[in-house]
Amino acid sequence: MTCFILLNFMEEEKTRTKEIKEDSKDLVEHVTDLLETYSNLVIINATQKGIDISSSIIFSVTLALLGFLVVSFIGFGLAWWLGNVINSRAGGFFIVGGIYLLSMIILMAMRKKTIFPFLRNFLTRKIYE
Q1: What one-character DSSP code corresponds to residue 88?
Q2: In sequence order, what are the residues at sequence separation of 6 or more whose Cβ sits closer than 8 angstroms to the Cβ of residue 78?
Q3: Does the pLDDT value for residue 10 go beyond 80?
Q4: Which pTM was predicted?
Q5: Is residue 103 within 8 Å of 110, Cβ to Cβ?
Q6: Longest alpha-carbon distance in the chain
Q7: How far apart are CA 97 and CA 57, in angstroms?
Q8: Cα angle at 69 between 65 and 74, to 5 degrees?
Q9: What is the mean pLDDT of residues 55-73?
Q10: What is the pLDDT of residue 70?
Q11: Which of 109, 101, 105, 110 is nearest to 75 (CA)?
C-alpha cells in the first residue's frame, strides 16, 4: 500500500513538473513577446520624434527664407522711398543699412539673456513633446 501511495505521489510530481515546465515555457514566450513589443515601441517613438523634429526644421527654414524675402523687399522699398525723400538714392540705402546694423547690434546684445534661453526652451519642448 505504501508503495502504491509512493508511486502515485511520484506520478503526480511528474505531472506537476511537466506543468511547471510548460508554464515556464509560456512565461518565457510571453516575456520575449513583451520585450519585442517594448523595443518596437521605443523604435516607433524615436522615429516619431525624429519626424517631428525634421518637419519642424523644414518648416522653420521655409519660414526663415520667406521672412528673409519679405524683409529684403520691404528694405528695398524703404530704401528707394527714403532715397526719393532725401533726394539721394544711395543715402536711402545707407539709412536702411544703418537700421539693419542697429537691429543686428541689439540682437547681439540680447542673445545671452533673451534669444539663447528662448531657443533652448523651444528646442527642449520640441524634443520632449
Answers
A1: -
A2: 92, 96
A3: no
A4: 0.59
A5: no
A6: 126
A7: 29
A8: 150
A9: 93
A10: 97
A11: 101
Nearest residue to 82 (alpha-carbon basis) of 98, 102, 96: 96
Nearest to 125 by CA among 46, 56, 44: 56
Q: Note the pLDDT of residue 92.
A: 94
d(CA 26, CA 31): 9
User: Nearest Cα to 74, choosing from 96, 89, 91, 106?
Assistant: 96
Closest CA to 81 of 98, 95, 64, 70: 95
Contacts of residue 89, defined as CB under 8 A and 6 or more positions apart, other chains included, come to 79, 80, 83
- Dist. CA 15–CA 17, nearest whole Å: 5
With cell 541689439, the residue in question is: 106
Quickly tell me which residue has 540682437 as its cell.
107
* DSSP three-state, residue 1: coil
- Spatial neighbors of 92 by CB under 8 A, at least 6 apart, are 78, 79, 80, 81, 82, 83, 84, 85, 86
Q: Lowest-pLDDT range, 51-55, 84-88, 116-120, 125-129?
A: 125-129
What SS3 state is found at 70?
helix
